[in-house]
Amino acid sequence: MTVSEIVGHLTKHAVRPSPQRVAVMQYLCEHRTHPTAEMVYSALLPDYPTLSRTTVYQTLDLTCSIGMAQKIVIEEGEMRFDADVSDHGHFKCTNCDEVFDFFYPQATVFPKPAGAFEIKEQHLYYKGLCPTCRQSMKMKKRGHRADG
């Protein structure tokens, strides 16, 4: 999403596109790392010394409420944010804590609860080892066996 698209989306939803709000959303769009609010704050603070944590938290909540971003909760007590609001899943590495996107065919059918439930959100996530960490652990095990 370009800066002008961010400004247009905010304006369309009657939200004043302040430089801080635009910067928060631009960061999410440019850094596909699924950051926490604290990560966004720390990254933007050098360029926006008057930026407050409250502004970052409120902006992230606001962008989620108007469909510009989504909240991701894979670990209890850790809220991350994603500018990609399309249907996709997430994989969190339990070693390096990176969160990766994965995409599945739109025709994929997931079980729905029986009854008259109205589904507002659907989340799919996995936890495990990313390829880099998995390879690193294999190498450590091989090295350990060779030493022993």
Global shape: globular
Q: Please tally the β strands and state the result.
A: 5
Strand content: 15-25%
Q: At the first level of CATH, what is the class of the largest domain? A: Mainly Alpha
Uncertain stretches: none
Mean pLDDT: 91
CATH superfamily of the largest domain: Winged helix-like DNA-binding domain superfamily/Winged helix DNA-binding domain
Give the strand order, joined by hyphens, for the main sheet: 4-3-5
- How many DSSP helices? 5
Describe the overall structure.
The structure is a single chain. The mean pLDDT is 91. Strand 3 (89-93) and strand 4 form a beta hairpin. Helix 2 crosses helix 3 (37-44) and helix 3 (37-44) crosses helix 4. The strands form two sheets. The protein has a three-stranded mixed sheet, with no helix packed on it. The chain has a two-stranded antiparallel ribbon with strand order 1-2. It has helices at 3-12, 19-30, 37-44, 53-65, 131-147; strands at 70-75, 78-82, 89-93, 99-102, 125-128. It folds into two domains: 1-85, Winged helix-like DNA-binding domain superfamily/Winged helix DNA-binding domain (Arc Repressor Mutant, subunit A, Orthogonal Bundle), CATH 1.10.10.10; 86-107 and 120-148, Dna Ligase, domain 1 (2-Layer Sandwich). The protein is built from five helices and five strands. The protein is globular and about 55 Å long. By secondary structure, the protein is an alpha+beta fold.
